[in-house]
Write a structure and sequence with these properties.
By secondary structure, this protein is an alpha+beta fold. Helix content is 16%, strand content 31%. A hairpin with a 4-residue loop joins β5 and β6. The protein is rod-shaped. The relative contact order is 0.10.
Length: 288
Amino acid sequence: MNRLRRTTWPVLGLALLLLLMVAGSVLAQDGAQNGEDQYPPNVIDVWPYPGEELLTNQPVTVTFDQAMDAASVEAAWQTEPAAPAQFNWLDTRTVEVLPEGGWQRATRYAVTIGTGATAANGLTLEAPYEFIVQSIGYLEVAAVIPAPDAEGITADATITVSFNRPVVPLVSTDEIAGLPDPLTFEPAIAGTGEWINTSIYVFTPEQPLSGGTTFTASIPAGLTDVTGSTLDETYSWQFRTLPPEILNVNPYQNQTQIRLDRTITVEFSQPMDIPSTEAAFSLQYNGE
C-alpha cells in the first residue's frame, strides 16, 4: 500500500504539471490571437515635423500605432485658434487633417487630440496629445545692402537684397532672363540684376553712382515666392553716396611762375558727371 502511494503521487503531480503547462500554452496562444491591440493607443508620427511650415492647402498627417475609431478621433481634435476641420482617413491608423478653407497664413496653431480618441479595441488615449502647426508666412525682405539710411556709400557699390524665403526656382542659364527684377530706384539707376541664389538678388549699376546723392530703392508689393507667398507691402529704403572730393590740382595753390600755356588739371576722388563739373568750373584773375 505504501509502495502504491509512493508511485501514485509523483505520477499525479507530473500529470498536473503537464495539464498546467498545456493550459498556459492555450491561454498564451489565445492572448496572442485576440490581444494584439489590447493596450491604449498612441500617436507615433505627425507630419510636418517640428520647425517645418505648412502650405495653406497642405494637410497635417497623424499616424497612430493601431486601428482607431474615426468618429472619436475627429471629435477629440481641437485647435487654437479654432478651425473647423476636414478629415481624410488614409487607412484605419492614419488620418490627414486640413481646416475648411485651408490654414490661415503666418499662423501658429496649437493642436490637441483629446483623451476621447478611441482605438478599435475600445481603449482611449491615456493623455492628450499636443503639437504645433505653423502655416507658411509672408514673403519678407530679410536684409539689404547698403543698409537703410547708410551714408558715405562708394560710387562703385552694388545693391543687394536678401529675402526670407526662396523667390525664384533653380533654373538653367537659358531661363535666367525670365526671372523677376524686383528693384526700382529714384533717381533711376541703369544696370543689371542677378539672382545669385534663390533668395538673394544683386544689382550692379552700369556706371558709377552719382556722388553726394540720396537714392531711394524700392521693392514693389506683390512679388511672389516659389510657394505663392507674396510681399504684402512695398519695401523702400534710402542710402546716400559719398560726395566727391578734390584730391589734387595742378598747378597747386599759390604756385607762381606758371607758363601761359600750362594746362590746369583737377583730380577727383570718383568719376564725375562731365557737364555739371564743367559748368561748376570757373577761372578768375586777381580774384575777379
